[in-house]
Amino acid sequence: MTRGLDPDETPGQGPGQVPGEDPTAVALELDCRGMVCPAPVIELARHVGDVAPGEVVAVVATDVAARVDVPAWCRMRGHHYVGADDLGDGAVRLRVRRA
């Protein structure tokens, strides 16, 4: 099911975002380098409430399980998994938009 755009909303912009803002801008970044499963997801769960709905939390992790765990956690909790960026140092930045 698709929804129509609100009059003040532009394509690619989700609910709770201000027009003209970068929809992938990170409001909070959690440095979880060196933590092993399930610690990165636990940190995300502890801190996702620190940002407003529609804002993005990034989890930076070196644990390969985080690449699977963070998107799965988003599906279970109703948040939006935005995507991942390889940082080139063995870490990945996983971005989550708070519902």
Automatic annotation (TrEMBL):
<feature type="domain" description="UPF0033">
    <location>
        <begin position="30"/>
        <end position="54"/>
    </location>
</feature>
<dbReference type="InterPro" id="IPR036868">
    <property type="entry name" value="TusA-like_sf"/>
</dbReference>
<dbReference type="InterPro" id="IPR001455">
    <property type="entry name" value="TusA-like"/>
</dbReference>
<dbReference type="Pfam" id="PF01206">
    <property type="entry name" value="TusA"/>
</dbReference>
<comment type="similarity">
    <text>Belongs to the sulfur carrier protein TusA family.</text>
</comment>
<feature type="region of interest" description="Disordered">
    <location>
        <begin position="1"/>
        <end position="24"/>
    </location>
</feature>
<protein>
    <submittedName>
        <fullName>Sulfurtransferase TusA family protein</fullName>
    </submittedName>
</protein>
